[in-house]
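Severity: low
Component: inverse-folding endpoint
Summary: output formatting inconsistent between runs
Steps to reproduce: submit the following structure tokens with default settings.
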């Protein structure tokens, strides 16, 4: 593999830097060995490291420290829209995966029901493609290591320190240049103390989750170790009348080990390795009928009910994620030098059958296997806090990616495609294999100059050079001749290579008119390199233009009335050119470029009535439009249509009340998540079928009741999610042409939310 020789080179580089790094993001650097943060309560104490979960500021408990600017700061000090959550918050709200973040952040879409493909959207930047070499517009990082594949988002949150959700382009300081935003997860590092924590959760549908951690000192003040694990299983809640078991079945286990080494007072080194394995029966896929016509007899045993899967074949998946990183932080010249070397492996497979039939053969089946290997190396230096401060660095990525898709087509008699493909039960099978290599080089920097104590200007940029190559093979195992509807010639072989370069700047002005208010204005560009057209049936090596985003954002972050009220508000305008849009129109998977414009407002507010009573309201308003979107495969013009998977309005209202007892405390928490209806395809045909379109509206109530002991060592909680049992469609694909000839009815493959779940959690820590 091309990346093997890079690993040893990177380790040599780290040694040369003094094994550089974990606390490179200080506002005022302090000796590496002296950085200590009190442990957080509940299941997993916070480590003494550069990624603390939360620290207390005068009058406010639990201000979260973030490193979105490669320095420690609070959310109020970051000059762009960001949401942050401590590990304790995530555990108490049962947020154990990236997809569950939709419970806490309004206006974003994260759907991992299809285990071969995650749907992620922030501010209208969405990816729905499976092409091996294409990047995602929303990047996922774990401990500052970039994950290259969409289905990496099946990762499990455990022993988590905090999660940051960054909205908008991150083209300057982040390891990977992105156009839509970033989800950055930090796990707890070892600390020089002996402690442990454990929790167990049980719920309906056979749900069982365990999480634990052990931290110990190996050599006093020199070497500490930490091991964390998690397991999760469920019998699933989606009924499957035509087969045994339920959809939503899952069985997973994860483990992570870390070592902390501090050979000198100014040097800190962290080595980490992790492994996870998940199997199950996929997500909540269903078929819905738009319109009022009769169900064709060819559908077989079809039940039009909520949360019922009518397929005849199971949709199993299996995924192994593993890897590790070596990070060093060195106090140097009044600042901090950081090096991070990461290596990730993803091996996964899934089979998703679609649509009901009178036989065991699916009308359309998709089998996918993924094998990805990636190496990343980042080196950066953050100066101390001076009138002129800066962060400069370099980034390298080398990845080998491979995807194999097996498409089974067996359309029903009388369907539109049935005349071009041999009908059910005969199967037309097409296999598509892609293997590619990605190499990315980048240099970045940002300089901040404080003109006065209250006003500062920042300017920075990143130069990115991405080279991608692909080898493409497609063939049919059942048909030797062409398949007319797909213009598929029988066998396709092609290869291609191309390089894309870009410079993306950022300019920011920050003004603090009074102590309680921070104002900012930011202009930033983001870049996502090109790739190759996702279409094995035409020319799979046609280059896809790189995606570029320009975002203008103005915001205010404030705290009033003796720290009782927080109000953070931002307005933005983001234009994306050469939008890499995926479509399945006409039964033909393909990708093409377009242009979109998203404008909106984001609001986050907290009211602390007393130390024990607080409420929060988070709101997102986004108007997104495809300003130019012309599909060359089906000769359709979607310009002017709303952007898919982007609710116009979304709001989360929540509150908590803590009642002190003589031997502990009882806390009641509730939150209600509402989002308006969304479009799920470029043509925006879903509104014509109200029963499906209306079901895309989100109305979810979650609640929790927790008892914490007076010594803080154990807690027990009762929880319920989707208390009102509201049904929601989160993804929909029009697959009418495989079932019938289009008429008054349309037929949609949909992914849905999960029915009401409830359970109890017991946690204990030393």
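Observed output (run 2 of 3):
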């Amino acid at each position: 593999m091309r990346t093997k020789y890079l690993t040893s080179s990177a380790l040599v580089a780290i040694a040369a830097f003094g094994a550089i790094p974990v606390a490179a993001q200080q506002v005022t650097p302090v000796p590496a060995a002296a950085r200590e943060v009190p442990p957080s309560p509940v299941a997993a104490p916070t480590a003494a490291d550069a990624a603390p979960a939360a620290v207390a500021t005068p009058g406010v408990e639990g201000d979260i420290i973030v490193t979105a600017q490669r320095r420690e700061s609070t959310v109020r000090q970051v000059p762009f829209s960001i949401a942050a959550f401590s590990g304790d918050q995530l555990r108490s709200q049962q947020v154990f995966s990236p997809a569950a973040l939709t419970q806490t952040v309004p206006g974003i879409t994260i759907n991992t029901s299809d285990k071969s493909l995650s749907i992620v959207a922030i501010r209208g930047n969405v990816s729905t493609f499976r092409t091996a070499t294409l990047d995602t517009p929303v990047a996922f990082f774990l401990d500052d290591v970039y994950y290259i594949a969409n289905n990496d988002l099946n990762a499990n949150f455990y022993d988590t320190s905090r999660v940051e959700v960054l909205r908008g382009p991150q083209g300057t300081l982040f390891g990977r240049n992105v156009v839509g935003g970033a989800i950055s997860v930090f796990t707890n590092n070892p600390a020089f103390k002996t402690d442990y924590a454990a929790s167990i959760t049980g719920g309906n549908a056979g749900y069982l989750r365990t999480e634990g951690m052990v931290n110990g000192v190996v050599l006093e003040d020199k070497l500490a170790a930490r091991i964390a694990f998690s397991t999760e299983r469920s019998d699933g809640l989606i009924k499957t009348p035509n087969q045994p078991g339920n959809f939503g079945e899952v069985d997973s286990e994860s483990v992570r080990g870390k070592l902390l080494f501090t050979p000198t007072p100014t040097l800190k080194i962290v080595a980490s390795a992790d492994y996870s394995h998940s199997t199950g029966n996929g997500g909540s896929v269903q078929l819905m009928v738009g319109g009022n016509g009769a169900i064709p007899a060819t559908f077989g045993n079809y039940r039009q009910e909520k949360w019922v899967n009518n397929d005849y074949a199971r949709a199993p998946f299996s995924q192994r994620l593993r890897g590790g990183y070596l990070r060093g932080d060195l106090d140097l010249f009044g600042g901090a030098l950081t090096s991070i070397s990461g290596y990730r492996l993803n091996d996964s497979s899934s089979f998703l059958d679609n649509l009901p039939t009178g036989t065991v053969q699916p009308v359309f089946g998709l089998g996918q296997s993924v094998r990805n290997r990636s190496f990343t190396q980042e080196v950066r230096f953050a100066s101390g806090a001076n009138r002129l401060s800066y962060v400069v660095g370099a980034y390298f990525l080398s990845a080998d990616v491979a995807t194999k898709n097996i498409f089974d087509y067996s359309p029903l008699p009388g369907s539109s495609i049935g005349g071009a493909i041999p009908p059910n039960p005969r199967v037309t099978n097409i296999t598509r294999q892609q293997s590619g290599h990605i190499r990315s080089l980048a240099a970045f920097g940002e300089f901040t100059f404080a003109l006065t104590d209250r006003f500062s200007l920042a300017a920075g940029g990143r130069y990115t050079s991405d080279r991608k190559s692909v080898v493409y093979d497609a063939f049919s195992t059942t048909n030797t001749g062409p398949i007319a509807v797909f213009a598929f010639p029988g066998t396709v072989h092609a290869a291609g290579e191309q390089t894309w370069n870009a410079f993306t700047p950022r300019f920011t002005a920050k003004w603090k008119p009074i102590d309680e208010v921070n104002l900012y204005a930011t202009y930033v560009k983001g870049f996502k390199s090109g790739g190759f057209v996702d279409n094995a049936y035409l020319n799979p090596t046609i280059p896809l233009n790189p995606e570029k985003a320009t975002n203008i954002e103005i915001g205010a972050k404030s705290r009033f009335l003796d720290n009782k009220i927080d109000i953070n508000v931002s307005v933005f305008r983001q234009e994306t050119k050469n939008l890499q849009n995926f479509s399945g129109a006409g039964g033909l998977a393909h990708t093409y470029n377009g242009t979109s414009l998203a404008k909106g407002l984001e609001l986050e507010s907290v009211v602390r009535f007393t130390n024990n009573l607080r409420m929060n309201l988070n709101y997102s308003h986004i108007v997104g439009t495809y300003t130019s979107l012309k599909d060359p495969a089906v000769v359709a013009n979607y310009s002017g249509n709303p952007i898919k998977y982007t609710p116009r309005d979304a709001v989360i209202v929540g509150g908590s009340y803590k009642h002190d007892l003589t031997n502990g405390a009882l806390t009641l928490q509730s939150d209600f998540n509402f989002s308006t209806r969304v479009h799920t395809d470029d043509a925006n045909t879903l509104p014509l079928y109200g029963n499906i379109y209306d079901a895309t509206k989100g109305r979810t109530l979650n609640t929790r009741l927790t008892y914490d002991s007076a010594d803080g060592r154990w807690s027990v909680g009762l929880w319920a999610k989707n208390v009102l049992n509201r049904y929601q469609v989160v993804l929909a694909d029009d697959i009418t042409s495989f079932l019938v000839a289009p008429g008054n009815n349309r037929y949609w493959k949909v992914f849905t939310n999960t029915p009401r779940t409830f359970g109890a959690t017991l946690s204990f820590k030393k």
